[in-house]
Amino acid sequence: METTYLVVTTALFAAVVNCCPPADLSALLAFKSALTEPYLGIFNTWTGTDCCTNWYGVSCDPTDSHVIHVILRGESEDKLMIDKTSQISYMSGSLSPSVCSLDRLTTLIVSDWKGISGEIPACITSFSHLRILDLTGNQITGEIPADIGKLGKLAVLNIADNNITGNIPPSIVNLRNLMHLDLSNNRISGEIPADIGKLSMMSRVLLKQNQLTGKIPTSITKIYRLADLDLSMNQISGTIPAELGSMPVLSTLYLDNNQLYGEIPVSILRNAGLNIVNLSSNSLVGYLPDVFTPTTYFSMIDLSHNELKGSIPASLTSAKYIGHLDLSNNHFCGAIPAGSPFEQLEASSFSGNDCLCGTPLTRVC
Ligand SMILES: *[C@@H]1O[C@H](CO)[C@@H](O)[C@H](O)[C@H]1NC(C)=O
Ligand SMILES: *[C@@H]1O[C@H](CO)[C@@H](O)[C@H](O)[C@H]1NC(C)=O
Q1: Which terminal Cβ of the chain has fewer Cβ within 10 Å, N or C?
Q2: Where is the Leucine-rich repeat-containing N-terminal plant-type domain (predicted)?
């Protein structure tokens, strides 16, 4: 008798706590019906009425059972052994706007399935709790919703490796909690918003391989926490703001393959925290300043394919460490200094200059 009572109350309790709200349930079922994932069958787990238990990738708030996370990552599926270069689409279909009914969602990750197409549902900007939006590695087209700035809690916006077009919406600067912005490898055009520096929480800004034009906004140098900046493979012009070299935690700077001109700011070569710098394939001119010191530490510095001239500064030999240095395809002239790091570098680091000589080049001085 007592046992029966216990079993019944436990079952009731479980039903009350675990059952997902009907609105969330129908939103998830509509989301599922717009997608096809034939390899793992993960949507086979999306059956029954309790979306909070054993639904692959779905988690609910433990107190009131509202759906708070939908996390479907193709890349983390070892069983698929996803090869980044393969053309196989592991999930196809599109992102149903029904997902927007999950109004308590804090995390929406549907990444690296390669085949999801269609647009980012415009209604996603109504999520008032969303902290992570990651749709990397699909074939999403269309534009970033113009009112993306309404996502006041957003910390991570990652839509890299898709086919997104249009501009970076000006409202993006209202995402005051944004820490990671990755729009790499899309077809985004127009300029980087001049007031991007308002995003003071950002630590990574990755905009590589798009069709961005205009200048590097000076305001970006006001982002105190910025550690990684990648603007490579765009059509950005103008000069490199000298203030980039005085950013306190900047450690990687990729500006390669743009249309930057003017001289390399001395501050960039002197910044002790900056240790990966690629300025290759621009139209940078002038001399390489003789400003290196025993605190200079670069894992990689690539200045190749520019219009730099003069001699290679002797102070480079005083650097604490230079892992990779590429000065090829410029107009440098004169003797390559002897000693570290030059003794470890290959001739290809110096090829294509006007009149360099000495080891590792075969041309004797
Ligand atoms: C996305 O872009 C790639 C390469 O540019 C192209 O092969 C593919 O067809 C595009 N997909 C869509 C859905 O437009
Ligand atoms: C620097 O950028 C150029 C141009 O985008 C690229 O070809 C090169 O591999 C990069 N250098 C390194 C060392 O990654």
Answers
A1: N
A2: 22-61
